[in-house]
Amino acid sequence: MQDPSAGHVATQATSSFIEHLQRSRPELLPFTQALPAGQIPPAPHATTIVALSYPGGVLMAGDRRATMGNVIASRHIEKVFPADEYSVMGIAGTAGLAIDITRLFQVELEHYEKIEGTRLSLDGKANRLGAMIRGNLPMAMQGLAVIPLFAGFDQTAGVGRLFSYDVTGGRYEELEHHSVGSGSVFARGALKKLWRPNLTEDEAVAVAVEALYDAADDDSATGGPDPVRQLWPVIYTVNRAGARRVPERELAAIAGSIVESRAVAGREA
Amino acid sequence: MTQQFYVSPEQLMKDRADFARKGIARGRSVVVISCADGIALVAENPSPSLHKIGEIYDKIAFAAVGKYNEFESLRQAGVRYADVRGYSYDREDVTARGLASVYAQSLGAVFTAEQKPFEVELAVAEVGHTQSEDHLYRLTFDGSIADQNGFVVMGGLAEQVAETVAGGWNADLDLAGALRLAVKALAADKEVDALPGTAVEAAVLDRSPESGRGSRRAFRRLRAEEITQLLAGEA
């Protein structure tokens, strides 16, 4: 704990956890180390995330695979996380860094809320995440990029909103739907056909599962539903009531019916 | 030439302690009560935005009496300490005991070394799975720390208030019961029977927030209408 004497407190006053770490414990930040020259050994990569909006909310879904070159590094990895009560984030890119950045972002939001006694606005959260991704730019230039997708419920506007980022921390608000990661091209194609205005929340969940199914169909780094191990995508919905994880049972049923309908059709995809 | 008078260390410490005690007694009281539903924190505080009670971490809350600027800086330092610790180790490694001992060190250092001691008294509360696992620590301006059982009363006419709480407290109280007891106790040094719901600030550390609200954060601030409602329930 810092010295609580008067002058010191005033200069140290910040509502940002990251700023506090930069001043007092910079070694804890995931992206401040200067890397020496050389080849970075293979590390797990997180793959596809899809997000889409529906009236009254927004949802985000991620498959469960992490790859390391041609090897599957994990079948169980979770890449979509609640950022706080009213927002969620998904990550693609270097898994180790991405998970730490997520953890840091979660603490950042909670820290602000506790210090200030009020939540950050949704735009404030989105900007904060952009700044963190920009902070990771030196690592990205070494090949350790992290690309997040951010979604949340805007309580003042009463709608779900969706933000994508580039590697330089640029923040772009997306409409309707978006996806990032290696399978995103295929997922985007599926979303364009499946998404429509006035989806209900249940329909939106089914659309997300199907988009990930299509991504896994064509991208070897994206995992499809796995009935053998009972693994389904991780999906969070965010609406006026807050963020909620869709239970495994529902996802198993949805994935089952998608596989079934495609098998019945008996066509090549 | 200015004359340097000798002041014995005993006198110096006594003067400082008297100074701090006076400052704290001028304020209004805060009551922290462990009950069956969790830990209730109640303060007499007409301001809806300048809080005396705050969230520190998942299961840890903070309550204070005395000078606002001083305990607010201590609260923020506590939040920073807890968040850094939870981020660098794990969330479950943040404990009220650790936080309380850091507070005790800070308060003790300021009491002996600074121009003037902090005019504050703090309570650090941690809710457990069962009532026997609850921790209530009370910290005074000189850095002394006490592990208290059942309830903590600080500030104002603390002794009178504590008497009322001690008279009505038992381990089976529910949240509404604890709140009613606290509000009754806070009025002990006044002419009225109990304070109105709008004159108090209250929060609760829920015993099982995961099942109740689906959140690991146990701290919940009670809104004025919730307080009035809880107080109005069968008396």
Question: Tags for this entry?
Answer:
heterodimer; A: 269 residues; alpha+beta; globular; B: 235 residues; 7 helices; 10 strands
Query: Could you tell me the number of beta strands of chain A?
Result: 13
Fraction in beta strands of chain A: 25-35%
**Most extensive interface: pair and counts?**
A-B, 24 and 27 residues
What would the average pLDDT of chain A be, to the nearest integer?
A: 89
Poorly predicted regions of chain B: none
Strand count, sense and closure of the main sheet of chain B?
5 strands, antiparallel
What coarse outline of chain B follows from CA principal-axis ratios? globular
Give the topology string of chain B: H per helix, E per strand.
HEEEEHHEEEEHHEHEH
Estimate percent helicity of chain A. 25-40%
Q: Which secondary-structure class do the elements of chain A indicate?
A: alpha+beta
Work out the radius of gyration of chain A: 19 Å
Shape of chain A: globular
Secondary-structure element pattern of chain A, one letter each: HHEEEEEEEHHHEEEEHHEEH
Beta percentage of chain B is 15-25%
Number of extended strands of chain B? 10
The whole-number mean of residue pLDDT values of chain B reads: 88
Number of helices of chain B: 7
Find the structural class of chain B using helix and strand composition: alpha+beta
